Amino acid sequence: MRLFVFGLGYVGTAFAEALRVRGWEIAATARSPQQAQALRAAGITPADPSDREAMAAAMAGVTAVLITSPPGPDGCAALESVIPALAQAQAFPDWIGYLSTTGVYGDFEGRWVFETSPLKAQSVEGARRVGAERDWRQVGRGMGLTVTSFRLPGIYGPGRSALDRLRAGEGRRIVKPGQVFSRIHLDDIVSGLLASLDQPRAGGIYNLCDDEPAPPQDVMEYAAGLLGVPVPPDLPFNELGLSPATRRFYAENKRVSNARAKAELGWTLHYPTYREGLKAILASGR
């Protein structure tokens, strides 16, 4: 069994490691000689996404493909690289997973959103994700490939949590009345992807998120309590010199439902809320 990851970042690395434990071979994109060398040292076959021959060789006999890289102004770069490589290698993977974002829904003023909700992306990045999802579904239908999209909210986990921000002295308690966000622990993303991989569904779309959308200031306060450090002072949203990216983030207010993933994939969350997730990160010492 062989996995190819286009964009071996935070989520891709964790998913690859979960399949390596199952005995899978792993291949992934590498855009520089240094990155390729690091992947080889980790037992991963590297492939330059701009090198069609290398990509075709990496795709030979591939069982599953995970796309994690965001689309750019010209669309999803993975489409232009992966599909020709699959065709050249005459490979027909059982599963292609595309990681998208709950940003495709835009702002719902705190209401619940489901996979069937209208896509009202408000940012350029969200609109590009809408287009990339559409393009992958069309390619899947046209080529008979099993493509599944996963819409992810804010991701946290070891090395990327409110605990880390507080330790680094960067914890902020930004308050915007009525604002809530959904989030997901890295381990629960991996378990959701594995559940889909074990029962592929062409054209599937799943929200992978925890059970409790919550105000970000509550998460920061809880993390401070776990660490036994002072809670950062409240910073009213309108008084902050926020970056454009942060303002885009706070411009969208919604609660994301995970009911479909639970019902169709039998997916069970390790960390139903940020409380369990943060406790586990602290206990792990990571």
**SSE class:** alpha/beta
State the order of secondary-structure elements, H for helix, E for strand: EHEHEHEHEEHEEHEEHEHEHEHH
Distance between the termini: 30 Å
Question: Architecture of the domain at 2-156 and 183-211 and 255-270, according to CATH?
Answer: 3-Layer(aba) Sandwich
Summarize the structure.
This protein has helices at residues 10-21, 33-41, 52-59, 77-89, 124-143, 162-167, 186-198, 216-227, 244-250, 259-265, 274-284; strands at residues 2-6, 25-29, 45-47, 64-67, 95-101, 112-113, 147-152, 154-156, 173-175, 183-185, 205-207, 234-236, 255-256.
What does this structure look like?
This protein has a domain at about 1-155 and about 185-210 and about 255-270: Rossmann fold. The mean pLDDT is about 95. Helix 3 (about 50-60) crosses helix 4 and helix 8 (about 215-225) packs parallel to helix 11. It is α/β, with parallel strands linked by helices and about 290 residues long. About 40% of the residues lie in helices and about 15% in strands. A seven-stranded parallel beta sheet has the order 3-2-1-4-5-7-11, with helices on both faces.
